[in-house]
Recover the amino acids of this structure.
């Protein structure tokens, strides 16, 4: 097989990271163990285990695992670029060919199920984004996870995560996509719970896994239904085949009358995405997922997990839209579901983000909100806009997460600095300078502040609380500027940033529908516009609270990244991603946009043209004609939100001890509600978790199983015992009685028995009669058997 | 495959009798010489495993031919296609007339359905011996009974004669009682052993009565002129051995009678619409399915699992429950398809309850072992549900699930046993942080846990996914008639509800994993907890590796199971 054959090449893309996972797991298996209380790792926030050994990878193993992990993802990146080159048309026409190959995997029935890879324009854009973002996250992790005793394990897991995502991206069928999808679920479980000694971490891991699992199972049902309806799960056979789509759209669904098979399957798949991409009402796991190390958050929020959810529905769009014409206002059930859920989630999550003080939680809710944008866009048929926003969002969100990681890292550093000075001598046996340095690299405690606080018996200090920050621009300039770029892109700062172009396109599509008077389009337009305004506002609030003004705590004053490898590996990815957070948008400038259109898109909108080819011709739509209203809306909401944030948090920066000005505007009640995320966690505990625990404990376990079934069983057992006693009595009475005499039997077996002695003759007869009837029945039945046989 | 001339190594007999011989030898050895006894046990178990693997892979090499022959038989549309397919699919056959007057013959054979079960039994046997390695209390008796149990299990799986099948079935139950009652968990063992034995005995007696009735009906069918002709033709075609009389317990002969409608004659027992199959199917199917933990006859199983010593729990949940499902499939669905079509559409409700109900109870258990016990109830529900689809994909899933669940649950019980041996408690909330001390066990448990929640890449997924697809496929094929009312299309609703069971499975697996293996470790409370011995690692690899191999490469087993199902499906298609 020719290794450079573009049909074969995609197979190799996930291989690098997957291989890296295996190699790291194997090489670090023979690691040394150190005492958990040893000086080398004793200052970590791990709970101490006196006398116990913690497996720690040797320095060589650690470096080797970093090298292997990085090589894996870079190999994937290079192969991806090679594939992109083929699709992008060195020798072929631009995006007109679909590459792929498959091998048989499981024969079921008369057909064999094939597993394979496929590269079409949609895959291509994912292949540009995913390996790039992953590589950046890997580089960042070198610094961020340095000196964590389990850095090797981290690299193994994150490689598996990346491998799973790439598998999902190149999959040519829904089942392989699902395989990648689920492996990512497992990785997210293991990585969110990476610091598993912390109860909050493994609880968050369980929550994330269980919540997405609920949705995954529904999705699997959809896949099973699709397979039973069409006999295939291959994208080529379903999505590129108008006949199959038409068949699915016209077949009524097997249950829930009135909806087509395509509709029901679509709804199942969309529910899968609602879980994976943390849409309302299954959004609750994502903010808790912040318990994992920050690079994991970047991985989950940008490069992989939640993007996978949106990617899946973009991929399956032809099926979801089968039988409907979203551009003519005719939405199918899954599209309607997506439009409503997406629009609502976008707005709902944005309101929560306004009242969060944790630097990562703000970003977590902004992710939920932005995913809502994509979901809503897809719901109204803005296929390309959704894909566009997926890509730009991945870049600026990965940037924002890693920048926030740097902020936390810097704050930790500051906290250690303060701690050293407050205590004078250090308790780790280093001289002050060395201790200072060691702390600078002591990254393990980033998200581990609770344990940290206890360990040092100090008042609780939260390095993630923005109220503790302020003025960080002075000590952490690179982080500030890159964070600013990411933030502006998220806010959709007009014309310059990538976020503007993708968000604008969604609004333009929605507005086009609105002008035709389509309800869902109008809903989407209004919700997204308001959400965009809030996004700009909370971004500015976050930037102001974190970087502007004067430091509000001693820790913030001393926050910085230090020098050396840690600092370089943590800032380089930020700079690279900042580039994409700005310039990625220019590939999708509408060609009829005044001035800029003729510069960037002289012939046609390049992104639109390229990705549009993924759809069947009859499903494609022209990009919406230029209209000043949505563009103006984009301008107004972005600049308005940014301006309001500027007025409130930059013009007069918050000083220590002052309450957040947003409280005054919102009022205490609303602010508290938002801060507590509308109490959804409490609500779910009350309506799902408690009742199901009660149900399984009281109803199923105690009532049915122990109560009903075992009681019946025990009654039967007692009946048998009683019968046994009776027969024993009869035995003594009838048989032994002849020889030994009745009085002994009577003496031994109860007073009641004496009472029936008088009727002995009749009872004799009764028993004979019963026996005769029984024998008669047996004869009758066996005769019947013989007759029926004859 | 047809019989070959000359001497053939009787591999199946060797597999069945090696444990019996080992048990007999042990009885002549001084009970204090424990190492010798362990040596004999592991030798016997290893021989059995190697031969089982040889049978499995030997049969696997023939699956292509078998499948081709089946296609040819199906295309030729002869007299008795289903029986011909079944007979053709049998390999490693051995046939010796035993009691001619009663039509009993010692007849063993392997087809696509039981070959995976043979392999599974070999794996669990070796694992069971290894995990009992450090048992000091009456080692000799324990190992001897364990070997008898293994022999019984093997016997059931490879019997082609229904009488021999019952013989081995009872042979398996008797040592089970003693093993639990003598070496089990002291608080529960007598109750659980009695409960288990009674449930299974009652179930099997009911099934036995049904099978004897079946033999009578078949023999009177063969007494009719048409029947005699069919019988003679089958003998001439080599489907039935020449020495067999019309009154016999041979599965092939009973299947032949069934294929020609002997059990579907209306007016059975004087009732106009009743047939033999319709009346007796529930008794035979459920009689065996008691051992597969079918609701509401499942309650013996969690108590039995918990009370039993680890090795017995492993073989019990791993293999014995499959015995029930296997026998229910063979004697129920394969021989009485006319009854299956009528009754499985309601039995599926019981299987659904199994799935969801077992998961719910498992979710709330504090005892580590009860969690696994109820999870078995839940997973075995999926096996029966797969049978109830009555189509190739769903039943293939059920076959895969039998193997997958067998290895997985044995692995689970192995892990629980290893934790219990060192921590001396199974109370989940008081455990924690064991990953630090027992990383191998933690990894194995996580692999098992991911398998049980149907994670792709592991065998649970390749089993559950076809069952789901099968349920969807069956949805518009299956109808349930209750009086004049017909219920249709409800399978698709049931599969949605069954999916709930999978979600709860994820919840309880994660909960247990989190509480037992993660979190804080209390070194003062568990001073004896340390890493496991090499024998334990062998167990974990032996049982864990197949989960991954099958998950990545299901074609290793799926085509084989499918070839075994084709005769059954042919019966279902043309049986009525």
């Amino acid at each position: 097989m020719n290794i450079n054959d573009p049909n074969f090449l995609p197979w190799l893309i996930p291989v690098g990271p997957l291989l890296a996972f295996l190699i790291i797991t194997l090489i670090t298996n023979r690691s040394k163990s150190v005492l958990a209380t040893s000086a080398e790792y004793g200052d970590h926030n791990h709970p101490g285990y006196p006398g116990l050994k913690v497996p720690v990878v040797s320095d060589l193993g650690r470096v080797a695992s970093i090298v292997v992990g990085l090589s894996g993802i870079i190999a994937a990146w290079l192969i991806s670029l090679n594939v992109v080159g083929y699709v992008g048309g060195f020798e072929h026409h631009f995006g007109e060919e679909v590459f792929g190959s498959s091998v048989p995997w499981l024969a079921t029935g008369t057909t064999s199920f094939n597993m394979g890879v496929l590269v079409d324009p949609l895959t291509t854009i994912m292949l540009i984004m995913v390996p790039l973002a992953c590589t950046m996250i890997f580089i960042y992790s070198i610094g961020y996870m340095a000196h964590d005793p389990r850095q090797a394990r981290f690299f193994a897991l994150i490689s598996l995560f990346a491998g799973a995502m790439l598998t999902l991206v190149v999959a040519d069928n829904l089942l392989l996509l699902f395989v990648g999808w689920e492996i990512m679920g497992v990785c997210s479980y293991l990585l969110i719970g990476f610091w598993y000694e912390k109860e909050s971490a493994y609880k968050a891991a369980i929550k994330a896994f269980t919540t997405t699992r609920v949705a995954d199972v529904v999705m699997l049902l959809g896949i099973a239904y699709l397979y039973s309806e069409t006999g295939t799960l291959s994208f080529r056979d379903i999505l590129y085949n108008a006949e199959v789509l038409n068949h699915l759209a016209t077949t009524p669904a097997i249950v829930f009358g009135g909806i087509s098979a395509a509709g029901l399957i679509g709804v199942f798949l969309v529910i899968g995405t609602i879980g994976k991409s943390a849409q309302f009402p299954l959004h609750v796991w994502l903010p808790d997922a912040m318990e994992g190390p920050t690079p994991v958050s970047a991985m989950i929020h940008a490069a992989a997990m939640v993007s996978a959810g949106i990617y899946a529905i973009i991929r399956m769009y032809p099926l979801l839209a089968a039988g409907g014409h979203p551009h003519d206002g005719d939405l199918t059930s899954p599209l309607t579901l997506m439009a409503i859920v997406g629009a609502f989630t976008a707005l709902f999550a944005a309101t929560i983000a306004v009242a969060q003080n944790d630097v990562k939680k703000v970003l977590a809710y902004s992710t939920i909100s932005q995913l809502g944008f994509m979901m809503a866009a897809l719901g109204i048929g803005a296929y390309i806009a959704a894909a566009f926003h997926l890509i730009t969002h991945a870049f600026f969100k990965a940037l924002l997460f890693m920048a926030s990681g740097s902020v936390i890292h810097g704050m930790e550093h500051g906290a250690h600095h303060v701690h050293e000075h407050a205590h004078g001598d250090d308790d780790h046996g280093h001289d002050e300078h060395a201790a200072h340095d060691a702390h600078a690299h002591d990254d393990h405690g980033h998200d581990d502040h609770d344990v940290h606080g206890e360990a040092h018996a100090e008042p609780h200090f939260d390095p993630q609380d923005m109220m503790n920050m302020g003025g960080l621009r002075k000590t952490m300039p690179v982080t500030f500027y890159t964070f600013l770029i990411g933030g502006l892109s998220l806010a959709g700062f007009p014309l310059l940033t990538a976020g503007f172009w993708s968000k604008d396109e969604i609004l333009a599509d929605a507005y086009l529908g609105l002008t035709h008077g389509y309800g869902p389009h109008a809903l989407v337009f209004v919700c997204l516009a308001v959400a965009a305004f809030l996004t700009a506002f909370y971004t500015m609030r976050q930037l102001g609270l974190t970087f502007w003004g004067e430091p509000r705590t001693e820790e913030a004053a001393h926050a910085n990244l230090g020098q050396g490898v840690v600092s370089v590996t943590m800032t380089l990815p930020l700079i690279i991603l900042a580039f994409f957070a700005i310039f990625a948008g220019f590939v999708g400038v509408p060609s009829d946009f005044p001035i800029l259109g003729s510069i960037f898109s002289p012939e046609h909108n390049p992104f639109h043209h390229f990705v549009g080819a993924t759809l069947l011709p009859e499903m494609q739509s022209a990009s919406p004609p230029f209209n000043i209203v949505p563009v103006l809306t984009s301008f107004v909401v972005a600049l308005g939100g940014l301006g309001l944030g500027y007025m409130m948090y930059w013009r007069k920066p918050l000083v220590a001890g002052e309450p957040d000005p947003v409280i005054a505007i919102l009022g205490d009640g609303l602010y508290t509600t938002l801060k507590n995320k509308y109490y959804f966690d409490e609500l779910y505990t009350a309506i799902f978790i408690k009742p199901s625990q009660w149900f399984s404990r009281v109803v199923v376990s105690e009532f049915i199983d122990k109560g009903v079934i075992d009681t019946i069983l025990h009654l039967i057992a007692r009946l048998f015992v009683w019968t046994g006693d009776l027969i024993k009595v009869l035995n003594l009475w009838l048989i032994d009685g002849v020889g030994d005499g009745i009085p002994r039997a009577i003496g031994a077996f109860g007073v009641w028995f004496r009472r029936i002695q008088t009727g002995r003759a009749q009872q004799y007869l009764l028993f004979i009669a019963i026996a005769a009837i029984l024998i008669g029945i047996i004869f009758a039945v066996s005769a019947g058997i013989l007759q029926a046989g004859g | 495959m047809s019989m070959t001339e000359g001497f053939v190594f009787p591999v199946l007999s060797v597999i069945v009798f090696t444990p019996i011989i080992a048990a007999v030898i042990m009885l002549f050895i001084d009970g204090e010489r424990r190492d010798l006894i362990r040596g004999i046990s592991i030798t016997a178990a290893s021989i059995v495993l190697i031969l089982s693997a040889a049978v499995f892979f030997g049969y696997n090499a023939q699956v292509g031919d078998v499948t081709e022959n089946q296609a040819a038989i199906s295309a030729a549309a002869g007299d008795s296609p289903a029986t011909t397919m079944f007979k053709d699919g049998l390999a490693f056959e051995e046939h010796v007339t035993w009691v001619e007057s009663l039509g009993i013959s010692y007849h063993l054979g392997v087809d696509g359905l039981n070959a995976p079960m043979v392999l599974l039994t070999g794996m669990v046997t070796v694992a069971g011996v290894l995990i009992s390695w450090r048992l000091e209390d009456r080692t000799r008796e324990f190992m001897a009974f364990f070997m008898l149990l293994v022999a019984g299990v093997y016997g059931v799986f490879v019997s082609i004669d229904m009488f021999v099948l019952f013989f081995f079935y009872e042979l398996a139950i008797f040592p089970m009682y003693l093993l639990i009652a003598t070496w089990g968990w002291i608080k529960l063992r007598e109750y659980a052993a009695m409960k288990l034995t009674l449930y299974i005995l009652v179930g099997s007696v009911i099934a036995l009565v049904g099978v004897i009735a079946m033999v009578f009906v078949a023999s009177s069918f063969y007494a009719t002129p048409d029947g005699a002709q069919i019988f003679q033709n089958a003998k001439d075609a080599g489907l039935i051995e020449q020495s067999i009389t019309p009154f016999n317990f041979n599965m092939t002969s009973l299947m032949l009678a069934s294929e020609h409608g002997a059990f579907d004659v209306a007016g059975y027992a004087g009732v106009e619409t009743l047939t033999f199959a319709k009346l007796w199917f529930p008794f035979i199917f459920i009689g065996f399915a008691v051992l597969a933990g079918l609701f509401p006859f499942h309650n013996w199983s969690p108590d039995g699992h918990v009370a039993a010593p680890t090795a017995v729990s492993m073989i019990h949940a791993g293999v014995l429950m499959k015995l029930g499902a296997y026998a229910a499939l063979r004697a129920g669905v394969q021989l009485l398809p006319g009854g299956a079509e009528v009754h499985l559409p309601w039995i599926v409700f019981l299987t659904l309850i199994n799935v969801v109900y077992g998961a719910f109870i498992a979710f709330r258990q504090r005892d580590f072992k009860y969690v696994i016990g109820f999870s078995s109830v839940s997973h075995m529900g999926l096996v029966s549900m797969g049978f109830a689809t009555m189509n190739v994909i769903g039943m293939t899933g059920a076959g895969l699930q039998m193997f997958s669940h067998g290895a997985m649950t044995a692995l689970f019980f192995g892990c629980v046993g290893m934790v219990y041996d060192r921590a001396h408690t199974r109370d989940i909330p008081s455990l924690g942080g064991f990953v630090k001390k027992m990383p191998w066990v933690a990894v194995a448990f996580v692999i098992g846990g991911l398998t049980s929640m149907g994670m792709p890449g592991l065998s649970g997924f390749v089993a559950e996914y076809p069952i789901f697809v099968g349920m969807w496929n069956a949805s518009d094929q299956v109808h349930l008639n209750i009086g004049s009312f017909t219920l249709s299309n409800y399978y698709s609703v049931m599969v949605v509800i069954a999916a709930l069971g999978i979600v709860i499975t994820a919840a309880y697996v994660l909960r247990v994993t989190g509480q037992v293996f993660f979190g804080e470790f209390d070194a003062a409370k568990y001073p004896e907890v340390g890493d496991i011995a090499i024998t334990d690692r062998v167990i974990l690899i032996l049982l864990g590796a197949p989960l991954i191999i099958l998950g990545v490469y299901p074609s290793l087993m799926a085509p084989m199971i499918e070839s075994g199902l084709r005769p059954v499906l042919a019966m279902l298609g043309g049986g009525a």
Notes: The radius of gyration of chain B is 23 Å. The first strand of chain B starts at residue 91 and ends at 99. Chain B has one domain: 11-574. Chain B touches chain A through 78 residues (CB under 8 Å).
